Amino acid sequence: MYDRIKGFRDFYPGEMAARRETTDSIEDTARRYGFREIGTPALERAELWTDKSGDDIVDELYAFEDQGGRHVTLTPELTPTVARMVVAKQQELSKPIKWFSTRPFWRYEQVQQGRQREFYQTNVDIFGSSEPEADAEILAWAADALTDLGLTGEHFEFRISHRDILGGLFESYDADVDVEAGIRAVDKSGKLSTPEYHDLLADAGLTYDQAVEFDELVSAGDLEDVVSFAETDRVADAVANLQAVLEAAEDFGAREYCTISLETARGLDYYTGVVFECFDSAGEVSRSIFGGGRYDDLIEQFGGQPTPAVGVAPGHATLSLLCQRAGVWPEETVTTDYYVLQVGDTRPEAAQLTRTLRKRGHVVETDIAGRSFGSQLTYADSINAETVVIAGEQDLANDEVTIKDMESGEQTQVPLETFPGEYERPTFDDFV
Amino acid sequence: MYDRIKGFRDFYPGEMAARRETTDSIEDTARRYGFREIGTPALERAELWTDKSGDDIVDELYAFEDQGGRHVTLTPELTPTVARMVVAKQQELSKPIKWFSTRPFWRYEQVQQGRQREFYQTNVDIFGSSEPEADAEILAWAADALTDLGLTGEHFEFRISHRDILGGLFESYDADVDVEAGIRAVDKSGKLSTPEYHDLLADAGLTYDQAVEFDELVSAGDLEDVVSFAETDRVADAVANLQAVLEAAEDFGAREYCTISLETARGLDYYTGVVFECFDSAGEVSRSIFGGGRYDDLIEQFGGQPTPAVGVAPGHATLSLLCQRAGVWPEETVTTDYYVLQVGDTRPEAAQLTRTLRKRGHVVETDIAGRSFGSQLTYADSINAETVVIAGEQDLANDEVTIKDMESGEQTQVPLETFPGEYERPTFDDFV
Predict the structure, then answer these.
(1) Confidence of residue A84 (pLDDT cuts 50, 70, 90)
(2) Which residues of chain A make contact with B40, given a CB cutoff of 8 A?
(3) A6 domain-assigned
(4) A374 interfacial to chain B (CB closer than 8 Å)
(5) Mind telling me how many Å the CA of B366 is from chain A's nearest CA?
(6) Which CATH number belongs to the domain containing residue A395 in this structure?
(7) Is B20 a member of any domain?
(8) B8, B17, B31 member nearest A41 (Cβ)
(9) Least Cα separation, residue B178 to chain A (angstroms)
(10) Chain B residues with CB inside 8 Å of A65's CB?
(11) pLDDT at residue B221 above 70?
């Protein structure tokens, strides 16, 4: 007997049905926004990640050498792949480019609740617009995707900031600050004690007094205070951009879900502008549910023309935790419209009924295992059949079938010419 | 600029839309048959393949050692994974188990038309029934999946045989025949010259005279001749089983697509009973489109209770070739119901219209890039917008919008209260 690999999940039909319903809903929201589905490879050259330094992802790669001697890796995220695809067809693609896709990614990291080594995300990105409306559309899509799943503002909030606010604040100090290290410190601050956080800020180049001051300013989150403290165009512009994004989000229906939170930094170095993270409002899911933001420099870093970009990538594992705690996760069960039960040698007639019902779009099973009456009924119950159509020799000799409602157990005989006849989706109730 | 890896495809929106439509159709057919979707890992322990010998797949594995020292491989096929999943929950799963899934697989092999190193399949399997109705249901599903795509019996045929016919024929010779090598020889015969084929049969243990005789008997494909030649229960039982499967396929509506072809052997060693391959009837796609069959021993080999099994796995690459040559491949393009065009400072009103139309389920885009009138119209054309809703300052001051049909170029002004108003999906034609 073989085991699956740690961090890799098998999804059996009940759980998979709930996942499928959720994924379909998220993707339907994306389609209505005019995001277009793309398909992307599971493997990429490892240098898409290793060429950059300072990225924690590299330590978590499933990287190896293929039989052709290529250094390849299972992709731990989608962004470098879509950047590569944009660069490859930059001239012929009309802008803005609006893409989505749902697929697994792989990271060799510590397995915990809501975090497996194989995990699914729906990536949604816009390339070619630096306008605040693009950031706002990403926020609005994310909000609609969640509310379309049945979540409300009571369940989630988007904590939003701008990379240049933190970067500009660090720069405004008369000190030699490693800005990226400082931003990573802020990104981790929620998981650290205050002294640990201040130590990290000091490691990045602030004095302890500055670290305390910085912490107070950032955690208070007052945009006017931040602008007047920094006194730089960079911070003033960042605040103005953040406010413009929030104004567009108001028009797009997403403002009510957004909270300004300057401690929201996003771990990845490639973000350049507005960044945001989705959190459980009730705090029951303590980690960020997912996040996104603007990354205007990446396409150029990948060899393309300078192209602004903004995106978000809800992870399905944390999202399912949020939905479960909010009570909106779909029931993990399979459903069946009809089971056509054969009694005696009625295979041709049962097959005909089965085919007719399937042609009308229904989920229909019939006996393929030579089962007894009771055994077929048990099976029909196990697949949650709503209606059992009993095709018995005697009934059929009278041009009838028996329709059984599996919820109530009631049944009735109906003429074969009326079942399914003109009914789109006939059930027991149509014949009593 | 980074390249994608050889044998790995990027799918841009137009092509992806055609693939999605096809996949959705195939999966919808599976759902109506009562196959239940499962989700499976991309990585498995390599021993799921390397423990077996004589399987060509092993040479094509993307196998490596992970950071935890596990010997793992990207999965080249689904069957061992579903076998592992059946064994893991054998007691609690009600039988027959009917599963499907669509996902990529990976094999390091020669790249050619219709064969990439990353390729998509929809796997459909039944566990727990040894009855001919189970084999026939697999055939019927495959036939319905293809006809639901618009293909007909003019486009495809299922060449069907039974593993024990070839195995029993080899056994019936008074010679020391390596039966698996012999079956592999038959499987390859279509790609070989007659002398090469006979050489392979001789390598497997037949004399040259026997090889010629065997070749004639098998290529003639007369079941009665085969039974009387072999004079063994094994061959007689296999022929009877094949005929029973074809009779059930008649009831299930799939018989018309099936041709008996004893040269159909399927390369994989795990098949045990009926095997079949789908071919292009016109011969334009020369390779097998896909194949399937019965593999009753695999679950026990994987440490489970003996459990009969039968399945099929259409590959999407060869299937798309078939659909293209048959003229039923969907148009590779994106579609858009509405583009809401902003003229002047009309973002709030345009956003409201956009949200209302999206809520009704339509694909709707609006300006998120601060574009001019002409530039927005060009973009709307590039995404094949059916209707452009022009939200201009002057129109809105009069409580009107302009509705433009992008096909004809005609446009008309309509009161804001009637657009979209009570219309489910209003177009230009509703207002003239």
Answers:
(1) very high
(2) 10-11
(3) no
(4) no
(5) 9
(6) 3.40.50.800
(7) yes
(8) B8
(9) 28
(10) 64
(11) yes
pTM of the model: 0.95
Is A7 inside a domain boundary?
no
| Lowest-confidence region among A171-175, A337-341, B74-78, B130-134 | A171-175
- Cβ neighbours of B84 in A, within 8 Å: 1-2, 4
Q: Is A62 on the interface with B (CB under 8 A)?
A: yes
A158, A294: one domain? yes
pLDDT of A53 above 70: no
When pLDDT is cut at 50, 70 and 90, the band that residue A393 belongs to is very high
**B31 in contact with A at a CB cutoff of 8 Å?**
yes
In which domain, by residue range, is A107 found? 13-326
Which one of B302, B326, B350 terminates a domain? B326
Domain boundary residue among B281, B299, B326? Answer: B326
Query: Testing the interface with A: which of B2, B20, B84 to mutate, by most A Cβ within 10 A?
Result: B2
Tens digits of residue pLDDT in A245-290: 999 999 999 999 999 999 887 766 688 999 999 999 988 877 889 9
Q: Given an 8 Å threshold on Cβ–Cβ distance, is A108 in contact with B67?
A: yes
Query: What are the chain A neighbours of B44 within 8 Å (beta carbons)?
Result: 2, 4-5
**Shortest CA distance from A11: residue in chain B:** B39
> A118 contacts in B (CB within 8 Å)?
41-43
B322 and B340 assigned to the same domain: no
Q: Which two tokens stand for residue B211?
A: 């090889």
Instruction: Indicate whether A408 belongs to any domain.
Output: yes
Q: Do A302 and B1 touch (CB under 8 A)?
A: yes
Q: For residue B116, list chain A residues with Cβ-Cβ distance below 8 A.
A: none
Q: Are residues B267 and B365 in the same domain?
A: no
Is A57 in the B-facing interface, judged by CB distances under 8 Å? no
Q: Does A302 touch chain B (CB under 8 A)?
A: yes
Question: What confidence score (pLDDT) does residue A426 get?
Answer: 95
Q: Are residues B202 and B59 in the same domain?
A: yes
A69 and A169 part of one domain: yes
Asked if A264 has any chain B CB less than 8 Å from its own CB, the reply is no
Count of domains for chain A: 2
Q: Does the CB of B369 have a partner CB in chain A at under 8 Å?
A: yes
Q: Does the CB of A173 have a partner CB in chain B at under 8 Å?
A: no
With bands split at pLDDT 50, 70 and 90, how would you rate the model's confidence at A183? confident
Q: Which residue of B has its CA nearest to A140?
A: B355
Is residue B236 over pLDDT 90?
yes
Q: Is B379 on the interface with A (CB under 8 A)?
A: yes
Q: How far apart are the first and last CA of chain B?
A: 52
Domain at A139, CATH number: 3.30.930.10
Q: Check A40 against B1: CB less than 8 A apart.
A: no
A351 in contact with chain B, both atoms CB, cutoff 8 A: yes
On whether both B252 and B307 belong to a single domain, the answer is yes
The answer on A410 and A317 residing in a single domain is no
Give the least confident one: A167-181, A318-332, B197-211: A167-181
Task: Check whether residue A291 and residue A401 sit in a common domain.
Answer: no
